[in-house]
Amino acid sequence: MEVRHLRTLRELRDRGSVTAVAAALHLSPSAVSQQLAALQRGFDVPLTEQRGRHLGLTPAGERLALAGDGVIAAVARAEQAARGTDAEPGEPVTVTAFHSAALAWFPDLIAQSLADPDGPSVRCRDEDVSISEFVGLAADHDLVIAHRPPAAEPWPDGRIVSVPVLEEPIELALRRDHPLAARSTVELGDLAAEIWVAAHEGFALEPLVVQALAAGAGDRLEIAHRVNEFNVVAAIIARTGAVGLLPRHTGLPAALRDELVLRPIRGVSVTRRIDVLARPEALTRPAVREVVGRIVEIAGRRSREGEAR
Fold it and tell me: pTM for the complete prediction?
């Protein structure tokens, strides 16, 4: 059993096709198939199976891929130990984030990188994906800033490492002249007749609307607009008087803070967890760990500044 074969199996699990694995590993599809065949020869149970036009992992293959994650991380730690504990000046670290976290934190993260030529060089990209797709982004990025409702399934242990960043309250966004804006909190029953802007089905905030409102509004709730980008949500609310949910620290654009207010919904605690995700071997690199620390620091500082306003 060779580490490169385990890595190929892991990539098939995470990418879903031999073609995608070949592109990621800069191999031909036939070379990928040969590596998988070489790995298979060491086992009596099948590791892969054909699923329509694509090759997938059997339960045995899934278990081996998960064990392989630990092997790959151990090899990475050994290689890092041989190189030493210091990061190379300007070492690139790729970071991806959902839109609102990117807007709130990327400018500071990039500014810190530019001000410290001896530190990591961050390369940032925003991604608008459903909760189930965040883990897959770690195949192509060193760090993934992801969010999920607290009640959602935890990130897969072993396959991914998660570093908690923030548990962020989600509150009702209202135009400042809305009749409910004068209240310090809003009752569920007051929201049944409102026209709502909500996230797309399957995205992180959409189930929070259901959680917050099902008991009080039931089938009277009217979700008229489906928008994931918080700048757009805020602009719609400011212009039309519709209502929606926005995160307290990352969801309210600075340009609209004088036009909108955020209010908690009485008796309902609605939050989202924001974590940094990485493959285990990525966190063996000092530069990657330093960027994680910077993200946590920026998020905490921005949250404290928001509470002080």
Answer: 0.85
- In percent, the amount of the chain with pLDDT more than 90 equals 60
Residue 218 pLDDT greater than 60, yes or no: no
Q: Are the CB atoms for 95 and 84 separated by under 8 Å?
A: no
68 contact partners, CB below 8 Å, separation of at least 6: 6, 7, 9, 10
Domains of the chain, first to last: 3-83 (1.10.10.10), 92-166+273-308 (3.40.190.10), 168-270 (3.40.190.10)
pLDDT > 90? residue 302: no
Beta bridge partners, 173, equal 244, 262
Distance CA 302, CA 216 (A): 33
Query: What are the angstrom distances between the C-alpha of 84 and each of 47, 78, 115, 120, 141?
Result: 36, 10, 24, 16, 23
For 140, how many CA atoms within 13 A lie in the half-sphere containing its CB? 15
